[in-house]
Amino acid sequence: MSILELIAAAVIIIIALWIVLIFNGFVSRRNRVQDAWAQIDVQLKRRYDLIPNLLEAVKGYMKYEKSVFMQVTSLRSSIVSGSVQDKAAANNTLSQTLKSIFAVAENYPDLKASENFKNLQMQLEDTEDKIAFVRTSYNDYVKDFNTSIQQFPGNVLAGPFGFSKSDYFEAPEAERQPIKVDFSDMDNDAVQRPASPAPKPKPKAAKRNSKAGADSSNND
């Protein structure tokens, strides 16, 4: 075998090893993304499963707990089998619902003091903390993976190997805005306060002056 053939063989081996290393790097990064997403998925489903119990706990304090339950139930397909974006949107809707429920509970000390309600609230808060923590890790892994398949030479090999960008699990724009909670229609015992009476008009200075002038002329 000639020197040129040896060099060519060595180059081919180096290129093959280089491709294998890049491929294995893609696989490793994608597995980290999938593992982090699996953890988010578990917490999202756990959070969803806790909400019917919460609605049962506040039953009797809310007028429209059935409609809220139906709204939550309609999100099941997104939570169970939706895409990353679908699950992010469903998670945001659940957050809005929970904030409304907890806002109603503020009006009822006996409900807030209920052990069942407090336990569910603690479990939901713990789940939300875990979602926030794992979401940060997931998004970091997604960034690392997406960067590796967008930069050279990864961008040349990613397509033929079947690797594509992963979606970030980001809070929708509505979730980033301050939440406006309106629970006036959900409060069973809301009391409508009567409108305050309009203030009596003060007598005008001109009338007082004319009256004073009339009195002085009578005295004369």
Biggest beta-sheet profile: none
Q: For the record, what CATH class applies?
A: Mainly Alpha
Q: Which architecture would the CATH scheme give at its second level?
A: Up-down Bundle
What's the β-strand tally? 0
Number of domains: 1
CATH topology: de novo design (two linked rop proteins)
User: How far is it from the N-terminal to the C-terminal residue, by CA?
Assistant: 143 Å
Q: Could you name the CATH homologous superfamily? A: LemA-like domain
The portion of residues assigned to helices is: over 70%
Tell me about this structure.
By secondary structure, the protein is an all-alpha fold. The chain has one domain (3-182): de novo design (two linked rop proteins) (Up-down Bundle), CATH 1.20.1440.20. The chain is built from nine helices and no strands. The longest helix is centred in the first third of the chain and has 55 residues, at 3-57. It is rod-shaped, with a radius of gyration of 33 Å. It starts with a helix and ends with a helix. The model is unreliable at 173-199, 205-212 and 216-220 (pLDDT under 50).
Features:
mainly alpha; 0% strand; 220 residues; rod-shaped; single chain; disordered C terminus; de novo design (two linked rop proteins)
What is the fold's blueprint, element by element?
Layout: H1 3-57, H2 65-74, H3 76-81, H4 84-105, H5 109-112, H6 115-150, H7 154-161, H8 173-176, H9 205-219
Helix pairs in contact: 1-2, 1-4, 1-6, 1-7
